[in-house]
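User: Some background: our group keeps a shared notebook of sequences we're curious about, and every so often someone picks one and asks for a predicted structure to add to the entry. Today it's my turn. The entry only has the sequence so far, pasted here. Could you supply the structure so I can complete it?
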Amino acid sequence: VQLQASGGGLVQAGGSLRLSCVASGSAFSRFAFRRYDMGWYRQVPGKQRELVATIFSSGSTNYADSVKGRFTISRDNAKNTVYLQMGSLDVEDTAVYYCNHPRLSGTWGWGQGTLVTVSS
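Assistant: Of course. Here's the predicted structure to add to the notebook entry:
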């Protein structure tokens, strides 16, 4: 399994970014991706990785309180891709962002993530 996150960068507080994560590998054979729940996580050095948004195979979503109303998770099953639209960014959102399955990360492993830096 390969999980390639991209789209991070430096943004001013109040700004927006859109992250993408493409899943590839044998676990994502034809039409398999659509059966997986997917999540976006973030990690600040020295802190635990935090699940901030989940999109289920049904299309329903769930968000951590810290990002609710500001972030939107979506997916394109045809492209094996999950997105995270981030708005009203705050310096507290600065972190490395990763995507993964909410319950299979121990099996899938972690990609390199994408760094989001929010300046004040």
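Suggested note for the entry: The mean pLDDT is 96. The first strand starts at residue 2 and ends at 6.
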